[in-house]
Amino acid sequence: MAKRKEIETDVVLIGAGIMSATLGAFINELEPGHSIHIFERLGRVAGESSDAWNNAGTGHAALCELNYTPEREDGSIETKKALDIIEQFEQSKQFWSYLVKDGQINDPKDFIRTVPHMSFVRGENDVNYLRKRYKALQQFKLFKGMEYSEDPEVIKNWIPLVVEGRDRSEKIATTYTELGTDVDYGALTKIFIDNMVARGNTELHLLHEVYDLIRQDDGRWKVKVKNLSTGEKMIYYSRFVFIGAGGGSLHLLQDSDIPESKLYGGFPVGGQWLVCSNPEVVNKHNAKVYGQASVGAPPMSVPHLDTRVMGEETSILFGPFATFSTKFLKEGSYWDLFESIKYWNIVSLMRVGLKNYELEKYLIQQLSLSFEDRIEALRVFYPEAKAEDWKLEEAGQRVQIIYKDAEKGASLQFGTEIVTSEDGTIGALLGASPGASTSVSIMLTLLERCFPDHFNGKWSEKLKAMIPSLGQNLEENEALCYQVRTETCELLQLDWKEPVPAGITVEANVG
After folding, report:
1. Cβ-count burial of 367 within 10 angstroms (0-12 exposed, 13-18 middle, 19+ buried)?
2. Confidence class of residue 92 from pLDDT cuts 50, 70 and 90?
3. Is the pLDDT of residue 402 over 80?
4. pTM score above 0.90
5. Can you give 313-369 as a three-state secondary structure string?
6. Is 103 left (phi over 0), alpha (psi -120 to 50) or beta?
7. 481 with 474: CB under 8 angstroms?
8. Strand partners for 308
9. CB-based contacts of 503: which residues, under 8 Å, 6+ apart?
10. pLDDT of residue 362
11. Closest CA relative to residue 184, chosen from 336, 66, 59
12. How many whole angstroms from its chain centre is CA 7?
């Protein structure tokens, strides 16, 4: 029997999505001599969650997403998460801008464009909430420039489709900001990976599946890989492994057998979009308009009416409508959920199932919707919507995290979670939104956890050049905030027009 091919490498990235691509881009800058191998089970890059059709494309900055600013029991608005997310998205823009300056991104419009971000609510209670949210956010410099209105004529000027045909007696309100963006994370992933391969130190392996991870006595990882085209099996020995396989990450994390993996389980949630490509409709809407989530709905199911730009095509998406499948990936296996159930997480899964009745009720309700029901839901946002202008498309598949806390017990968590081994030789990303928008911040956290000495030592100057605000808080540093935003918007060709406050000098060439 022929001996399996064995290869030594510095870094293995599992999954060719935005997370692996972002981490690879950082490693290429910080350690240009490192060898990198990327393994992707599909025959294309960014085929799952990073694909433009499989996510909202929102540059999540908490400008319009109401679930990041919940109302407390005393009626006040919680703003901490919103501040964290907008700071993180500013880091993403800084890194992308650095790559533009460095010539690694030729045309920012290949992946990012200005699209206003808006919140839209109906009814007295929600209007009162949005008014309080707007006032709460206006105390922060990062949200300055946002506008608020309850006037139908003003709102019609911003989003005519939402106002035309609406009963004028209905109480409505919106917030509006031109700081918002639409991002094609699939296109950005391809830019990153193309750059990595062009440098000569990275090999991209499509149609290759990692099926086992074994820690070696010397601290390296034995990565078992199968070529899905030929059936050939190979072994890679790597000093560092990152599992960025979207919904497939949980299985591989469990295969690693690190103690940290025993704390997690997963619950899959899918989605569908209503999509309109009729130019007469598309040309009348230029915004991402987010509403209130239904009771029990996961954050990825917050309804929104979105302008989407993918290549030369502009469309409007509405949704997402939740679906359920036992698959952890859109192109996964129906056995995924069952194979993730282990003796150490089965009790957690059962407890979470018993505690999340509202989510289960919501999913059942969503699964029962007909096409006509979905059009009626659309008409809450767009009263004059015609069914013939819209078609139903499958969106991506996500896996919500089930986490077993020693004190609080098992809980279903929304958002993203970084899992790393104690020795920092392996890391994984679990979860969903805001995900891609905060990929730069997430990967910076991963690098700091896994390579603390390098992060705070020999890498620190280079990291500061790439992320000028690193280690600082933009909200607390007004001059740096406007300086960073001015340059990133200029380099990324975004339409941010807010005037610089008196007394602040904006220098050219941040970093």
Report:
1. exposed
2. very high
3. no
4. yes
5. EEEEEEEEEEECCCCCCCCCCCCHHHHCCCCCCHHHHHHHHHHCHHHHHHHHHHHCC
6. left
7. yes
8. 315
9. none
10. 67
11. 59
12. 33
Residue by residue, DSSP assigns 281-320 as HHTT--SEEE-PPPTT--GGG--EEEEEEETTEEEEEEEE
Tokens of 220: 């390296």
Residue owning tokens 């979207």? 246
Could you read off the pLDDT of 299-315 as tens digits, one per residue? 555 899 999 999 889 99
For residue 473, what pLDDT is reported? 95
User: Which distant-in-sequence residues (6+ apart) come within 8 Å of 29 by Cβ?
Assistant: 462, 466
pLDDT in tens, 108-129: 999 999 999 999 999 999 999 9
**Contact of 322 with 293, CB cutoff 8 Å:** no
Decide: 90 and 84 in contact? Cβ < 8 Å: no
Element containing residue 403 per DSSP (H, E)? strand 390-405
**Mean pLDDT across the chain, nearest whole number?**
90
Q: Provide the 8-state DSSP code for 71.
A: B
Task: Give the integer Cα–Cα distance in Å for 396 and 330.
Answer: 6
Whether residue 468 has a cis bond before it, omega within 30° of 0: no
* Exposure b/e, 382-400, CB count within 10 A at least 16 = b: beebeeebbeebebbbbbb
